[in-house]
Amino acid sequence: MKRCPELQDLSREHHTALALVVRLKRAAASGDEAQVEAACRRTCEVFAGELLPHFHVEERDLLPALEAAGASAVVARTLLEHRALQRLVRELELPDPDVLLRFAELMSAHVRFEERELFEVAEDLLGREALARLLGHPGH
């Protein structure tokens, strides 16, 4: 799906999340305790270093503008899923293949939701100039 340039950085970060999801599902299905432990550790690292900053950009810059534009349903779902993912990551501090799989499934669904709904609504309601201002893209 072609994404407007202003949202492409956030969209690219979704690729990182989806690549992680594939590895997590494989580890959860392996039945190998060492693989599960490594996957849980990796999830916590990637979440702290890449996914949480992604959430912060959305919550600080994008979601308030969408809320103001009347898109409260997509904003509410985004925030609920962010919090659910944060809770699951905290649970992964004690490695558990079931929690790992729940995290992977929710992350996958969340990325699909953001790509298919949240970003579409942002493009339609806010437009490229507002997105450029909100997300710090020069030249707009």
Characteristics:
140 residues; mainly alpha; Four Helix Bundle (Hemerythrin (Met), subunit A); 4 helices; 84% helix; elongated
Provide a short characterization of the protein structure:
This protein is mostly helical and 140 residues long. It is built from 4 helices and no strands.
Instruction: Please name the CATH architecture.
Output: Up-down Bundle
**Biggest sheet: strands, sense, closure?**
none
Oligomer: single chain
| Number of DSSP helical runs | 4
**DSSP, total strands:** 0
User: Mind telling me the CATH class?
Assistant: Mainly Alpha
CATH fold naming: Four Helix Bundle (Hemerythrin (Met), subunit A)
What's the structural blueprint in terms of helices and strands?
Blueprint: H1 8-30, H2 33-68, H3 72-91, H4 97-135
Helix pairs in contact: 1-2, 1-4, 2-3, 2-4, 3-4
